[in-house]
């Protein structure tokens, strides 16, 4: 109300009034328009909810969804949606809307999120005992790249302990053939011994 009284003075411009009250000119003109049309009541905060909702579901459709679920406790939103299609009820709500209606009516509990426990897959069938250092080794190639001259490919082969993650060997091979990998394995077995697995 103080803003309106200040604006209505003949010597004050809208820009000066808006700067004084720290509002935009658009808001200032809007408040003045509301005051002129509805008086002091027009300056109250108005409800911003839409006056109509064209996509809002009718009570009939909501009741139909709930009655179908009460008749068939194991049916979910997908099944209920297909039943509504067969009955030609318009508008047919999407799956998420049906699920929300069922959850709000207390027919579906929000499931607790469980953290998945990733269990390591072991190659041996040991009876629950934890592997020790030097029990398992991993052998794999780490991609490839061209040599400095750009004429041949280099394949890095790494061998490491699975428990301690200690790198036992990294070797550059010219190809991925089994014979070359076997020669590298033989050399490592001769110097470091063999793993249990």
Task: Please tell me what the overall shape is.
Answer: elongated
Helix content: 25-40%
- First-residue to last-residue Cα separation: 85 Å
Mean pLDDT across all residues, rounded? Answer: 83
Elements, N to C (H/E)? HHHHHHEEEEH
What class would the helix/strand composition place it in? alpha+beta
Can you give a write-up of this model?
There is one protein chain. The chain is built from 7 helices and 4 strands, in the order H-H-H-H-H-H-E-E-E-E-H. The protein is α+β, with helices and mostly antiparallel strands and 197 residues long. Strands 1, 2, 3 and 4 form a 4-stranded antiparallel β-sheet that branches. The longest helix has 15 residues, at 178-192. The radius of gyration is 37 Å and the shape is elongated. The chain starts with a helix and ends in a 5-residue tail after the last helix.
What attributes does this structure have?
alpha+beta, 197 residues
Brief summary:
This protein is 39% helix and 12% strand.
How do the helices and strands line up, and which of them pair or pack?
Layout: H1 2-7, H2 14-21, H3 25-38, H4 59-71, H5 77-86, H6 95-104, E1 137-141, E2 145-146, E3 153-161, E4 167-173, H7 178-192
Antiparallel strand pairs: 1-3, 2-3, 3-4
Helix pairs in contact: 2-3, 5-6
């Amino acid at each position: 109300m103080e803003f309106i009284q200040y604006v209505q003075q003949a010597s004050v411009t809208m820009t000066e009034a808006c700067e004084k009250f720290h509002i935009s000119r658009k808001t200032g003109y809007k408040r003045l328009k509301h005051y002129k049309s509805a008086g002091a009541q027009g300056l109250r905060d108005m409800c911003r909810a839409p006056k109509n909702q064209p996509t809002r579901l009718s009570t009939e459709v909501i009741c139909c969804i709930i009655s179908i679920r009460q008749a068939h406790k194991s049916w979910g939103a997908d099944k209920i949606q297909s039943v509504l299609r067969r009955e030609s009820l318009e508008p047919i709500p999407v799956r998420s809307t049906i699920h929300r209606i069922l959850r709000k009516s207390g027919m579906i509990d929000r499931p607790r999120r469980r953290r998945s426990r990733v269990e390591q897959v072991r190659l041996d069938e040991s009876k629950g005992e934890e592997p020790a250092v030097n029990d398992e080794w991993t052998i794999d190639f780490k991609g490839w790249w061209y040599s400095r001259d750009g004429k041949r490919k280099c394949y890095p082969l790494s061998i490491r302990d699975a428990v301690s993650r200690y790198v036992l060997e990294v070797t550059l091979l010219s190809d991925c053939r089994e014979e070359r990998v076997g020669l590298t394995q033989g050399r490592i077995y001769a110097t470091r011994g063999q793993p249990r697995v």
